[in-house]
Amino acid sequence: MHFTEEHEALRKSIEGFVAKEINPHTEAWERECIFPAHELFKKMGDQGFLGITRDPEYGGMGLDFTYAVVMAEALGKCLAGGVAMAIGVHTDMCTPALANFGSDELKRNYLAPSIAGDMVGCVGISESGGGSDVAALRTTAVHDGDDYIINGEKMWITNGTQADWMCMLANTSDGKPHQNKSLIIVPMDAKGIHVEKKLEKMGMCASDTALIHFDNVRVPRKNLIGEMEGLGFMQQMAQFQDERIWGAANAASGLREALNLTIQYCRDRKTFGQPLIDNQFIHFKIAELSSEVESLRSLVYRTVDLQIERNDPFDMEVVRLASMAKFIAGRLSREVLDWCVQFHGGMGYVTETQINRMFRDCRLVSIGGGADEIMLGVIAKLEGYLPGKKKDA
Amino acid sequence: MGIGFPEAYGGVEADLFYGWVATEELCRAGSGGLMAGLLSHTIGAPPIANIGSDELKSRVLPGILSGEKISCLAITEPTGGSDVANLQTTARREGDHYIVNGAKTFITSGIRADYYTVAVRTGGEGIGGISLLLMEKDTPGFTKESIKKMGWWCSDTATLYFEDCKVPAHNLIGEENEGFMGIMLNFNSERVFLAGQALGLAKTCLHEATEWAKERQTFGKSLIHRQVIRHKLADMQMRILATEAFLEKTIWKVEEGLMPVTDVCLLKNQATQTLEFCAKEAVQILGGMGYSRGTKVERIYRETKVLSIGGGAEEIMKELAVKQMGL
Fold first, then answer.
1. In which domain, by residue range, is B313 found?
2. Distance (Å) from the alpha carbon of A193 to chain B's nearest alpha carbon
3. Domain A5-120 belongs to what architecture?
4. Is residue B2 a part of any domain in this protein?
């Protein structure tokens, strides 16, 4: 992956936006456990940031995914991980399937206004009975004339209390679990949708997370993504790739920030007559972690290069590498932030410090967007050594 | 409240094993903050009991041990936490009083305590110039500020500021310039107590993760039937059993009066590493629920770091241990 002047210009302008429009509000948004998505997204839409890789026909910039990576990295400068995540959900987690497989009408109604920042999107896959276990989800969408009638619930929905639409994975038939699902765009003002509660979390506090209930919700059948039902599982697997690459790129950049903060702190902080950084254990440990962050970044770039080269959302080698990048991002986030807090000592334990917020935010990487264990299962499967289905133990 | 304190002042004379049993039972609630706040006197009051005058003991201990008064310990300063020998808060003798100036931070129960056991500099540099003073809550010139922390929410933590605070000379704990030994004696029992807390909370993590794994179904069977989950639980149990054995042996050595400093330092690290491991795995096993407020393991996860940083950071423990090993 090669960054051109155009990439750097985009990076600079997004970092400038983060510094001016996002970071000054961090404390307030974290305290309120929500950020004003419509207000912020409109400002971002005006700058063109919400459709970097999307078709200009719908208001996008039409750039390749390397530019999305630049944005994910620039958002690593957000002081609140929750805000970066909420933006990522909107640009690269709930929209890829709509952009890749949606009808022109659906894209005009939902993608274009989302790129403009007039609408906020969310993605509805997980349920309380199954998060990473996508095949086990129970929400149903049943035909009734030209409509679907949707019943069920969705859990862990980022942007869930503010979204205008949801890219929902639901069962549209009783068939095999991988062939009976469809992705449907659900307008969130439809009758029968109840946000049951805003979930309180360890970190990512500025981002709202919801448990949402669907009770006989009527949605037009033309809101189906793609031309036929039953492709939802595959479409979502493809959509997950962008999400995971985005997540890994964003995490790598955030980890670099965390190390920089820690280096600065260890230079300033003196104990037993010398700066902390002069302790061999500390500068060696930081050098070690820095090397690992750099290798994660390299894996992300290699994955993106291959994704662009293959240009196929179902390419399994890209899936394998993206799953590895997501897995390493999760593991490394935990390791790096744990050391950063340790080296900050008591200050690292104080909630209002930046390093403490990063520690709490980062823990999600190993759980959200497909837990570490799911990534390992995918990798084992693609490499051919995942055992087949057995009877229950 | 009185376990380990003299009966004459309302205590229950018992060895450290009893303290550990009490700690372990409290850990079932899954809140380290509860213990830290409820039991701040177990670090604040021992210097009074160990080196304080009879007059001081009979004046303050009964109220502390009956639960009517809250006692806390104030050693750490904004400029140096684990580096006790360099503390900067001064106490200048003027007639029947000491005049105290300086600041303390990360003080557990610092907002609501009645009695503060404060480490001050009464003499020259280094460990030979440190004394302990008992400061009372309404002393003029004494102000406090609350600190918000990642965990231990139900325990208050504060920064304390002393501006020309007048403390009666009879509130000196022990002899002038001999406070360092009082602090060191305390550190040993504090660290054993912290190790016991880490161990108890690790057990709670194992219990919560096991119960969840039995209930939670994914991909058609309960998590408990997954090999990786079973192995995680075995790894947790292994560390818990090793820590428990180490803790028992160390308590025995302390009770025998062997002053096992190396053991205590490394026990604290062993126990807090065990807790970090168990909390990390428990959060991972609980998945999204482990990240959500309201589960015990989410709370315990946020409480791990305070144990590997507070009461002597992990790195300080290692330095002390190797020094004691003659290296």
1. 181-324
2. 22
3. Orthogonal Bundle (1.10)
4. no
Residue B158 sits in the same domain as residue B26: yes
Q: What's the CA dihedral at B282, A94, A138, A129 to 10 degrees?
A: 10
pTM attached to this predicted model = 0.85
What are A's interface residues with B at a Cβ cutoff of 8 A? Answer: 126, 129-133, 135-136, 155-156, 199-203, 271-272, 279, 281, 334, 338, 341-342, 345-346, 348-352, 356, 359-360, 363-364, 366-368, 371-373, 392-393
**What architecture does CATH give domain A122-230?**
Beta Barrel (2.40)
d(CA B256, CA B263): 14
Each residue's pLDDT, cut to its tens digit, for chain B (327 residues) gives: 899 999 999 999 999 899 999 999 999 999 999 999 999 999 999 999 999 999 999 999 999 999 999 999 999 999 876 678 889 999 999 999 999 999 999 999 999 999 999 999 999 999 999 999 999 999 999 999 999 999 999 999 999 999 999 999 999 999 999 999 888 888 888 899 999 999 999 999 999 999 999 999 988 889 999 989 999 999 999 999 999 999 999 999 999 988 899 999 999 999 999 999 999 999 999 999 999 999 999 999 999 999 999 888 999 999 999 999 888
- B147 lies in the same domain as B13: yes
**Chain B 58-117, CB below 8 Å of chain A: which residues?**
76, 80-83, 86, 105-106
Q: Which of A159, A263, A137 is nearest to A204 (CA)?
A: A159
Long-range contacts of A125-130 (CB under 8 A, 24+ apart): A125/A154, A125/A168, A125/A169, A125/A236, A126/A154, A126/A155, A126/A156, A126/A157, A126/B288, A127/A152, A127/A153, A127/A154, A127/A155, A128/A153, A128/A155, A128/A211, A129/B217, A130/B218
Other C-beta atoms lying within 10 Å of the C-beta of residue A234: 18
Note the ipTM here: 0.73
Amino acid letter, A330: G
Query: Are residues B250 and B192 in contact, defined by beta-carbon separation less than 8 angstroms?
Result: yes
The whole-angstrom separation of Cα B232 and Cα B287 is 14
Q: Quick one: tokens of B294?
A: 């309201």
Mark whether B156 and B46 lie in a shared domain. yes
Q: Which residue of B has its CA nearest to A369?
A: B288
Out of 3.40.50.10860, 2.30.42.10, 1.20.140.10, 3.40.50.1980, select the CATH number for domain A233-382.
1.20.140.10
DSSP notation for B30-62: --HHHHHHHTTHHHHSHHHHHH--HHHHHHHHH
Asked if residue B244 and residue B117 are part of one domain, the reply reads no
Distance CA A142, CA A152 (A): 12
**Structure token digits, residue B14:** 């018992």
Verify whether residue B255 is a known catalytic residue.
no
Count CB atoms within 10 A of the CB of residue B196.
27
Q: Chain A contacts of B304, Cβ < 8 Å?
A: none
Q: Strand A147-158 and strand A209-220: pairing?
A: antiparallel
Q: Tell me whether residues B221 and A201 touch, CB distance under 8 A.
A: no
- Do residues B122 and B241 both lie within one domain? no
Q: How far is A270 from chain B (nearest CA, A)?
A: 8
- How many domains would you assign to chain B? 2
Provide the total of helices (H) and of strands (E) in chain A, helices listed first: 14, 9
Of A126, A200, A345, the CB nearest to B292: A200
CATH number for the domain harbouring residue B310 = 1.20.140.10
| All structural domains of chain A with their residue ranges | 5-120, 122-230, 233-382
Residues of B in contact with A367 (CB under 8 A): 283-284, 287-288, 290-291
Under 8 Å between Cβ of A379 and A324 = yes
Q: Are residues B59 and B74 in the same domain?
A: yes
**Given B24, B77, B178, B190, the catalytic residue:** B190
